[in-house]
Structure formats: C-alpha cells, structure tokens
Design brief:
The complex is a heterodimer of chains A (291) and B (256). Chain A is mainly α and 291 residues long. Chain A has helices at 7-32, 40-56, 61-83, 88-108, 128-151, 153-163, 165-170, 175-198, 211-224, 229-245, 247-251, 253-267, 271-290; strands spanning 118-119, 203-204. Classes of the chains: A mainly alpha (291), B alpha/beta (256). Bound molecules: adenosine-5'-diphosphate and magnesium ion (MG). Adenosine-5'-diphosphate binds next to strand 2 and helix 1 of chain B.
Chain lengths: 291, 256
C-alpha cells in the first residue's frame, strides 16, 4: 500500500482530508445552525500557529494540537458572543473582520514570524504515510461526530435555530447558548485542521489562513449542500483537488470559488445534496410511471 | 384565586406610535380570558410583551407574582408560558408532527450538553400524536408544512404551544383561517383544556366563539383598556359597543 502512493499523492490526500475537516467544521456553524461565517480560516490559522509555536518550544505534537484547538475554540466563543448581538448580514461582516484581524496580528508579531511566516519547525516523527492515515482517520471521526450531532436533540435544536430563531426562542430554546456551542465546536475543529495542515507542510504564513481560504471553505459547504454531511465531504475533496489539477483554477481561486458560491446560491441552493435528491426523485418518478 | 399573570401599567411605543398605552390586568389561575378589540388596538403587542418578544417602554409583567420583565424569551417560556402566534411560523424544515414533537422535547433541549447526549424521540412523538389528534390535524402529521392549508398551520401553532405543557396558554387569533365547524371544535377544545385547569388568554376576532367560551373579557381600543369584567356585562357597556362594535350592532363577527 505504502509503495503505491508517491509523496505527491500522499500530500494531496492529506490536504483533502484536512479540508474535509475544515469544511465539516464550518458546516456545524453554517450548515447545522444557520450562522454564516466568512472568516473560518482564521481559526484554522490559530490552530496552526499555536501548534507550531509550541512545537518549536519542544511541546509534543498532540499536546500542541489540543492547545491549538482550545485556543481556536476560545476565540470562537468570543466571536460567537459578538454574533449574538447581530443579525445575519452583519455577522458576515464581523466574521470577515476576523481574518483581517488575524493576519494583522500575525504580520506584526515577530514570534509568529511576521510576514515571513514560520518554517523549519519540527514535525511529528510518524512518517508521511502514517501521518496521512492519521489525517484520514481524523476526517472520518469528524464525519461521524457530525452525524452524531445531527441525530441528537442538539442537532434538532440547531435545525430549529437555523430555520427560525425567533420561533425557537418561543419554544423555550436558549438560542444564544446553542449558537455558542456551535461556534465552539466548529472553531476548535478548525483549530485541529490548522494544526494538521501546519505539520504536513514546511511553512505557514498568515495568507494561508486569509479571506480567500475562508471563501474556499464556505464554497465547499454551499457546493456540497449546506448542512449535508456527505455532500460537504465530497465537495471538500473535489474542490481541494480541482485547483491542484488545473493551473487556471489555481491562479484564479477567488474568482473560481466566489463565482461557484454565487452560482450555487442562485441556481442550486441545496447544493450537490439537493441535486442528488432531485435526480433521485426524477428516477423514482420514472420507475413509478412505468412499473 | 391566585394571580398567575399580571400586566402592570404596560406602555409600548414603536417609533412615534403608542401601540399600548398604560394597560393593566391580571389573570387568575384557571381563568379563560378573552382579550378583544378592533384591529390595531394593541392586543398582539400586549401578548408579545408578555412573552418578551417586544420590550415594553415601561410597565411590568409578573408571572406567579415575580417580575419577568427583564428575562429573555426562552426563560419566560420555561416558567410556564406558551404562545400560539397570530402569524404562523412553523419550522419549514420539519414536518407537521416533527414541529410538535420538537416542542414537546423541551426537557431535552433545556441544556445544550444534555441535548448532545439525548437521542430518543419516542415520548415526544407520542405526545405530538396526541396533540395533533386533539386539534384534529392528525391526517397531516407527516405532511410538509409548506404544503398544508392555513387552517392546519394555525392549529399546528396551537398544538406546538400545548406541547410545552404550559401553565398559561397565550393564543393570538387561533381561529382565523378555520372554517366555522373547525372553529367551533377548536373553541370546544380550548374550553375543555381550560376546564382541566389550564389558564388561557385568548385574542380572537370571532366574537361568537369568544362569547361562547370566555367568561371574562378585557377590551382594548387604541392601546387603552376600555373594558374588563364578565363577558355579558362588558359587551353591554355603551363605551365598548361604541368603540368596538359600532353603535348598537350585535353581529357575531366584529367589524375590524
Ligand atoms: N413591530 C412594530 N413596529 C411598529 N409598529 C407596530 C409594530 N407592531 C405593532 N405595531 C403597531 O402597533 C399598533 C398595535 O398593533 P397590534 O398590537 O398588532 O394590534 P392588534 O393585535 O390589536 O391588531 C398598530 O398600530 C400597529 O401598526
Ligand atoms: Mg393582532
């Protein structure tokens, strides 16, 4: 197995697995709970920088990753708290502000490598193949966690809030607390993705976690079908690999993902998952007619 | 008789418009109170102030003798209020029965951590089935809320409010959109629930039903209370007749 994949293949697979975690983590906030976020990559950056700075200081990879998740989650709660005060359109602007705040702080901090970024930090000694298997397993774990949450009463409550938060309140739902729960889970998982990303590459810079990356993740969620776990997973894989295969898409990322976002919202608001459901209905209606 | 709900000198100003202008009344345990008045009188605003959807400009709301004016909506509901809204707001991504079952799960949704480790819907579905039967929309249980008539959605609102097992049920025009048979049946159901001990505040335009089931009325006009007392006496009051019915009229449906 190990011989069948060259280093490049393995890096593609690792990247795709990390992006699956990223997209599913945003799906918790945006898909399950209806809260838009245009700054999700910043939390990935917090996880990445925390874990890298700690590993430079001799802290173990796993501990560093947990610390990155914790810090991303704490910042997630802070952003979540501001989100409680604002409605949808303003939440978009607030969360967008987070990425600029993040890059602003990183690029002014010498211990974070300012504009040069951080490089030459120690990697966990697992080897490429084991590391790849680990990221895949973690991506699967995040999928299972998503399914678990969706099926729980928390999932139903998220759904009610995404649907109509005023009515959820009238049914006795503490909407603020549930939104915070979604933010803390989603942003700490973004922190996980950040640490995994940092330790499979050789350099991290603020621009790896900027606005374009945030839009990329959002377009994965929208393309997959907001809320659909399978759809978002497939979309994350496809949209991660496409720009690597196509130089053109790679060069015009923002245009590509922004355009995709627009087209999906305009023409297929339920994303891939919605298209699959529609096709199924078509097929079933056909077979129903003839049989 | 103990007072369960008290509205004390409530004033609500929207921009420049005074929607509610110093209204006070109290509701005793087990009462069925009809809150009536012409369109724009401020009835809905009073109800929304009770639940906390609207922040009053001044005045207070007391539940069981305790001030709840500063409390967020969900905490008031969890103290025993439930509201069936004038403009229906079903969750569009849930079926009819899921809407009611979700509300019936209020014990499971009180705490996010608890909700994360709870999966069972058996009791809630059973309760929802009961409530849908009670308001006679069982045949729509699995329907999409986007595809059912308004009369069904109005009764869904009522069933969903009842699913919270409230002490005080607030109903904002629950009979609107129902045909006359459906309205009488739902009126009977409300009366029976009240007979079983549920306190009800009913806003309703269908005066025939109001007079049939409400022993006591509070009448609002232009944001002010112009009548309060036993239904027959209140309706005989010349001020009420003039403001609300137009002089001397006595039809079963109020002119708006
Ligand atoms: N959210 C609001 N913003 C501004 N004005 C409002 C609002 N809600 C109600 N009003 C106004 O307050 C008055 C009372 O309305 P409402 O309470 O809905 O009356 P009713 O339920 O008795 O028909 C009306 O003049 C209405 O236009
Ligand atoms: Mg009204």
């Amino acid at each position: 197995m190990e011989d069948l994949l060259n280093a490049y293949d393995m890096s593609l697979i690792r990247t795709a697995a990390v992006m699956v975690i990223m997209a599913l983590s945003l799906n918790l906030i945006t898909g399950f709970c209806g809260q838009i976020s245009l700054g999700h990559a910043a939390f990935m950056g917090v996880g990445a920088y925390t874990s890298v700075v700690l590993s430079i200081n001799g802290v173990d990879f796993i501990l560093g990753t947990l610390a990155g998740m914790a810090l991303a989650g704490i910042l997630g709660i802070l952003v979540g708290l501001t989100s409680l005060r604002v409605r949808h359109d303003f939440l978009a602007i607030t969360t967008m502000g987070i990425v600029f705040l993040f890059s602003g702080i990183v690029e002014q901090s010498s211990f974070l490598g300012d504009t040069d970024g951080l490089s030459g930090y120690p990697h966990p000694a697992y080897g490429d193949f084991a590391y790849m298997v680990m990221t895949i397993l973690l991506a699967i774990a995040v999928m299972l966690l998503s399914i678990y949450i969706r099926r729980s009463w928390m999932g139903a409550t998220f759904k009610s809030i995404g649907d109509d938060e005023d009515t959820a309140r009238i049914l006795g739902i503490d909407v603020s607390l549930y939104k915070l729960a979604a933010f803390v889970m989603g942003t700490s998982l973004a922190g996980l993705a950040g640490s995994l990303y940092a330790h499979q590459t050789t350099i991290i810079q603020a621009e790896n976690f900027g606005f374009i990356e945030s839009i990329t993740v959002l377009s994965m969620v929208v393309f997959g079908g907001v809320g659909s776990i399978a759809g978002v997973t497939v979309a994350a894989i496809v949209l991660t690999l496409l720009p690597l295969w196509s130089q053109f898409i790679g060069d015009y990322k923002l245009l590509f993902y922004g355009g995709l976002l627009f087209l999906m919202m305009r023409f297929a608001p339920y994303g891939l998952a919605g298209i699959v459901v529609r096709l199924q209905r078509l097929v079933f209606r056909r077979t129903g007619d003839t049989g | 008789m103990t007072t369960v709900l008290e509205v004390r000198d409530l004033r609500v100003v929207f921009g420049g418009v005074t929607a509610v202008d110093g209204v006070s009344f109290s509701v005793d345990d087990g009462q069925l109170l009809g809150l009536i008045g012409p369109n724009g009188a401020g009835k809905t605003t009073v109800m929304r102030s009770i639940t906390g959807i609207v922040r009053p400009t001044s005045g207070n709301i007391l539940l069981d003798g305790q001030r709840v004016t500063g409390l967020p909506i969900h905490r008031r509901m969890r103290r025993g209020l439930a509201l069936s809204q004038q403009l229906v707001r079903p969750f569009r991504e849930m079926s009819v029965i899921e809407n009611v079952a979700f509300a019936a799960g209020y014990r499971k949704t009180g705490n996010p951590l608890k909700s994360l480790v709870t999966f069972d819907w058996t009791q809630e579905r059973a309760r929802a089935t009961e409530l849908l039967a009670m308001v006679e929309i069982s045949s729509y249980a699995d329907a999409d809320t986007g595809s059912v008539p308004l009369g069904v959605l109005k009764r869904l609102e009522v069933a969903r409010a009842l699913a919270l097992d409230p002490k005080v049920l607030l109903l904002d025009e629950p009979l609107a959109g129902l045909n006359s048979n459906e309205a009488v049946t739902l009126g009977d159901t409300i009366k029976r629930l009240n007979g079983d001990g549920l306190t009800v505040v009913l806003i309703e335009h269908n005066l025939g039903e109001v007079m049939r089931i409400c022993p006591r009325l509070v009448v609002l006009d232009n944001g002010r209370k112009i009548g309060d007392g036993p239904a027959q006496e209140v309706m005989a009051d010349p001020d009420v007749r003039a403001a609300y019915l137009g002089t001397g009229a006595g039809g079963s449906h109020a002119a708006a």
